[in-house]
Amino acid sequence: MSAAAAPQLIPATILTGFLGAGKTTLLKRVLAEAHGQKIAVIENEFGEENIDNEILVSDTNEQIIQMSNGCICCTIREDLRTTLNDLAARHRKGELQFDRVIIETTGVADPGPVAQTFFIDDEIAESYVLDAILTLVDAKHADSQLDSRQEARRQIGFADQIFISKSELCEPAAVDALIHRIKHMNPRAPQRKVHFGEVPISEVLDLRGFNLNAKLDIDPEFLQPEGHGHGHDHKHEHHHDCGHDHAHGEHCDHDHHHHAHGEHCAHPHHHHHDDDVKSFVYRADRAFNPAKLEDFLGAIVQVYGPKMLRYKGVLNMKGSERKVIFQGVHQLMGSDLGPKWGPGEKRGSKMVFIGIDLPREVLEQGLDGCLV
User: Fold this and answer.
1) Mean pLDDT across the chain
2) For residue 214, what pLDDT band results from cuts at 50, 70 and 90?
3) Residue 61: how many CB atoms within 10 A of its CB?
4) CATH number of the 10-203 domain
5) How confident is the model at residue 212 (pLDDT cuts 50, 70, 90)?
6) What are the residue boundaries of the structural domains of the chain, listed by start?
7) Are 153 and 147 in contact (CB under 8 A)?
8) In CA terms, which of 51, 61, 238, 346 is 20 to 30 Å from 106?
């Protein structure tokens, strides 16, 4: 079948976030506002803050409810895959009209398995494309939630886009410190302060955050070298550890009990949280040996997959005139050929890994060993 004849894939957005961060507000808007898009909202209904009491008629037996603005909402109690396949089948037959899907996970959920559904299941991959994972963060309670709940930290690590709500209720210095903290956990997700009454729907959807594009967007501040020479062959970005790599950060332990009051905001560039979700960037100028790299990455995801949240790279492979783009969630990796290297373009590889207590040295040494 030619590409032109292939049916248009339905974009899917995974919406995750802490309790009280505004997911319900956002979904209510999607389901009620005249935004001109027909959206199917799938709610994992074992939730704490169910949307249905307010908008949906709760005593109906119909799982799928049509909204006045053309959206549909369905609550699922069983398997997500079944529901997605059912929706896609009804969409193909013309029984249901919708342009996209938003899946809300509950406040405590790990978005990983939901994201993996789009990779593993062939039937789903033929109907849907995962557009992005959005994580909503409640600025007022984020520090304490991140300190105490690993699932909150995981949701940050998974995100393609982070929306910070309720920032107007906090001191600007505390919000800046939060943004800085989150950036260390996930430097590839843009962060945005929002009021969910006002953010345009177009800025929430169609972000294409998850696709295999040849851009590896990493926050530029994260990549600034601090006194690093750029001459050597494979540069590891150690510099952003200014105090968040607590094995070595003696100066960090005194601050642990105060963050609610924001004393640490006077020097926001020092990071005083020993978060287990961390990120690091690997760069190399020399090309990778494709077979070695594949073996190494395969072995790594077998061992560390559960702790690897998101990873992505734009790679310079020996023997390839084109960039190779790879990315993954947990144990699942996908790769694709990107555009050709430009005639004058400096070839190099850049990878970002986001995970829970990942063994950085093991990864760096292993990757170094795969270079030509």
Assistant:
1) 78
2) low
3) 4
4) 3.40.50.300
5) low
6) 10-203, 277-370
7) no
8) 61
